[in-house]
Amino acid sequence: MDAVRRAVGPSRRRVLRSGSGAVLAAAAGGALAGCGAGADDGVGPDGTVTIEMWHGQADTAKKVLQGLVADFERGHPRIKVSLGGGVLSDVMLQKVTAALAAGSYPDIAYIFGSDLARVARSPQVVDLTETVHGAAVPWKSHWAAAREAVTVNGRVRAAPALLDSLAVVCNRKLFREAGLPLPEAGWTWREFTDRARRLTDQGRGRFGTGWPGTGDEDTVWRLWPMIWDLGGDVVDDGGKGIGFADSGTRALEVVAGLVRDRSVYVDPKPGSEQMYQVFLSGRMGMAVTGPWQLPDIEHAGIDYHVAPLPTFSGRPVTISGPDTWTVFDNGEARSRAARTFLGWLNRPEQDVRWDVEAGSLPLSRRTEALPAWRDKVARTEGLAVFTKALETARVRPVHPAYPEVSQALGQAIVAVLLGRATPEKALRACADDANAALLIPR
After folding, report:
1. Of 60, 248, 322, 412, which residue has the fewest beta carbons closer than 10 angstroms?
2. Ranges of CATH 3.40.190.10 domains, the chain
3. Fold for domain 167-319+401-438?
4. Whether the Cβ atoms of residue 160 and residue 324 lie closer than 8 Å to each other
């Protein structure tokens, strides 16, 4: 999981990109007019097709991908995969949109799931519905979160690349010192806030929990499971307004309670690195995080316990943030080769290597059942909790207005975290901005 954190930016969170809709619209127009991409069909004199993949990975994950590509090429001697891009995935969207505008773009790029709806508006994005429904890809055994994150208007517009979920990692030592039982499945948000309060010791610089305070996607996605559990949704059934006017207020009341108790460390910097350092130094009782953080926790020597997210209803619910491999049309030969490669990459025998060595959760139940993954789970404390959470995980909607909705909610959360607004006032401001964004034709 450490590879994931390093591969896709600090804490592996998605960073909102202002104005990306306008950039993508311009890129789509530029791609229609451009001819740079089509000038080279990628087919060599001997019939070998070369495809370009902007992977966005670094360190361990990059090495794992290089190994997978080498194995693919040995089994498919007429297809070569050139790994490039030159940027990490945090800034991949900007590079891809500029490339689309210039008419010279890769065959495959690593695109965050929260950006896919906007990227898919480009006519250069290849429809992968038939590819993932092929016999070689276990599409029906993929977790629902993985399938939904790449589906736009009923069509599969990308292949799932990485899967995760949220749970609560607890410091056993601090729980023992506070005389508190470790949480288990079915615990409530009331119990969470109560334990956060009792774990806090201001004199010793200890906090019950932490929350990112920058207003970006890292701040926001921790609130969606609460909203869903309370019966709300990101967008209402009509698609013209937010679906969390009431549930969002109730969820923000949990945040306000943490603030009142002074039990929450608010991280002022993007990436949540300071928040995690507080936990790794043994001064935080609970961290809401994903499996990517476990290697750092183990390396720090923290005796830890992993519990599912608390609930209001007693029903398990969490969020998954899948990212994608998106294919762009550079002619039939290259598109066909790209589809062949991604179909191969999504098979369980390749997926399990990516999961074990680079830090994703299994894309499918078939991968989860493989001995290599079972062995990884047996060797990693708490990993089974994150995997089991995929059974009930939900994803943010693949909606072109999602970034604006997220930005508005992020501002509301920060206002509550900093004591600048009540949950009711913060949610009203959020609703005004988010509803306005949802009314814009797209």
Report:
1. 60
2. 2-163+322-394, 167-319+401-438
3. D-Maltodextrin-Binding Protein; domain 2 (3.40.190)
4. yes
For 12, 356, 435, the CA distances from 368, given in Å and listed in that order, are 22, 11, 40
**pLDDT, tens digit, for every residue of 107-126?**
999 999 989 998 999 999 99
Quote the tokens at residue 343: 């179909």
Between 429 and 44, whose confidence is greater? 429
Tell if the pTM clears 0.90, that is, is over it: no
Residues 367 and 347 sit within 8 Å (Cβ to Cβ)? no
Q: Which two tokens stand for residue 256?
A: 């306000």
Report the amino acid identity of residue 78. Answer: R
Of 322, 337, 332, nearest to 52 (Cα)? Answer: 337
Q: Is 153 exposed, middle or buried (0-12, 13-18, 19+ CB in 10 A)?
A: exposed
Both tokens of 408, joined, read 């508005």
Contacts of 283 (CB under 8 A, 6+ apart): 204, 205, 206, 207
Cβ–Cβ < 8 Å for 76, 358? no
**Bridge partner list, 304:** 171
Neighbours of 384 (CB within 10 A): 15
Please name the CATH architecture into which domain 2-163+322-394 falls. 3-Layer(aba) Sandwich (3.40)
Sign of CA dihedral 354, 383, 144, 427: negative
